[in-house]
Specification:
Blueprint (H helix, E strand, L loop, with lengths): L1 E4 L6 H11 L6 E4 L10 H9 L4 E3 L3 H11 L6 H8 L3 H7 L4 H12 L4 E6 L2 E6 L13 H7 L13 E4 L16 E2 L4 E3 L12 E4 L4 E4 L9 H12 L1
Parallel strand pairs: 1-2, 2-3, 5-6, 6-8
Antiparallel strand pairs: 1-9, 4-5, 7-8, 9-10
The structure holds manganese (II) ion (MN).
Length: 238
């Protein structure tokens, strides 16, 4: 069986919920389409755990790319660190700084080795697995990797011929406002699987390509009551 999920964003309990449901076997393969890290605390351990599983392929997301730039590039004006922090990188960096030099070097090596796209064939369908967009897709950076991890596909975009593109990066609520935390099966051979796991009211989705069965993380906590949250905010604002 072939499974695809994306944008775990440090949500450890949602990640574990999916792993419990799919019970990955030796002959199965799981593709994780980037953005294991940032916005929530447990990104690095999740990325590391997935990376070393023999039947898992992890792709590069824009968040891993941001982390690599922030921690390895000459950055006198904090351009790269600023961008990372503005996109939820602080929780990752806060923990990273407390890790041993060996662990830090290992995580950077892992990120450097992540592929940008992957291809897999299932039931006679050729799937192109991407974080943001297929490599070679022109966006606004003029850099092939940046374009591939940052592009937000539009529902009307034209995909490469004879390929069904499965992408993360952009929460599916952008394509189906009335069905927000579900996998998006678009026209033009596009499937979006980022169900907003990064956010409190999202969840982690996972698609099994053999039969297109969808799996969703189940919460082990009671979501906070909206009236309660708004009540708290009204107190804070006063
Ligand atoms: Mn992303």
């Amino acid at each position: 069986m072939i499974y695809v999920m994306s944008d775990i964003h440090g949500q450890y309990s949602r990640y574990k919920s999916i792993m419990r449901q799919i019970r990955l076997r030796k002959d199965d393969h799981l593709y994780v389409l980037g953005d294991c890290i940032d916005r929530n605390p447990f990104g690095l351990p999740i990325l590391k755990e997935l990376y070393y599983k023999p039947n898992v392929t992890v792709l590069l997301g824009n968040h891993e790319h941001m982390m690599l730039e922030a921690l390895t590039k000459e950055d006198p004006n904090n351009k790269y660190m600023g961008r990372w922090y503005n996109n939820g990188g602080f929780v990752t960096h806060r923990r990273y700084r407390h890790c041993t030099p060996a662990y830090r070097a290992e995580m950077l090596d892992i990120i450097r080795s992540l592929p940008v796209n992957a291809e897999v064939r299932c039931n006679g369908v050729d799937y192109l697995l991407v974080h943001g967009a297929p490599l070679g897709y022109k966006y606004k950076y003029g850099d092939a990797v940046m374009d591939a991890v940052w592009t937000r596909l539009d529902y009307a975009d034209v995909m490469p011929e004879n390929k069904t593109v499965i992408f993360g990066h952009t929460p599916t609520s952008r394509y189906q406002a009335g069905w927000p935390i579900h996998i998006y099966h678009g026209e033009n051979r596009m499937i979006g699987i980022d169900c907003g796991c990064a956010y409190i009211d999202g969840r982690l989705g996972c698609l099994r390509l053999d039969d297109m069965k969808e799996f969703y993380s189940e919460e082990d906590w009671v979501p906070p009551d909206r009236d309660l949250i708004e009540g708290i905010y009204s107190i804070v604002k006063r």
